[in-house]
């Protein structure tokens, strides 16, 4: 059995020579430092369904799974690790800044709850 404890694997299901989940099973069993599920061509709901399966396989082997781009999918699946492209990171920061501005301007306690929720949602 191979071990890849210092390797961070990035997926691309189109390059797999075997069934994708079979490949994930093999990879997770090798225990890399993590698997980034980077299937950029999928719409969010399809990504969510695939991520649900991949997270289950990774959990079985104790292999960290890092989702990519879809912050709402990560939140819905309870996955605290997410890899964001720069454009998405900027969007997340902008959302946080807008929430902080509302609080600084003396908005309601609801804005504080919203900010806390967003920080939890994005792991910041």
Q: Could you characterize what this model shows?
A:
The protein has 5 helices and 4 strands. With 124 residues, the chain is of the alpha/beta class. Strand 2, helix 2 and strand 3 (65-68) form a beta-alpha-beta unit.
Overall spatial form = elongated
The major β-sheet equals:
4 strands, parallel
Q: Tell me, rounded to a whole number, the average pLDDT.
A: 87
Which residue ranges are poorly predicted, with pLDDT under 50 across at least 5 consecutive positions? none
What count of helical segments does DSSP give? 5
Along the chain, the helix and strand elements come as EHEHEHEHH
Estimate the strand proportion. 5-15%
Please bin the fraction of helical residues. Answer: 40-55%
**What would you report as the Rg, rounded to the nearest angstrom?**
17 Å
Distance between the termini: 37 Å
Question: What's the short version?
Answer:
This protein has 124 residues and is α/β, with parallel strands linked by helices.
Itemize the secondary structure elements and their pairings.
Layout: E1 8-10, H1 20-29, E2 34-37, H2 44-61, E3 65-68, H3 71-77, E4 82-83, H4 86-104, H5 109-122
Parallel strand pairs: 1-2, 2-3, 3-4
Helix pairs in contact: 1-2, 4-5
Which structural traits does this protein have?
alpha/beta, single chain, 4-stranded parallel sheet, 124 residues, elongated
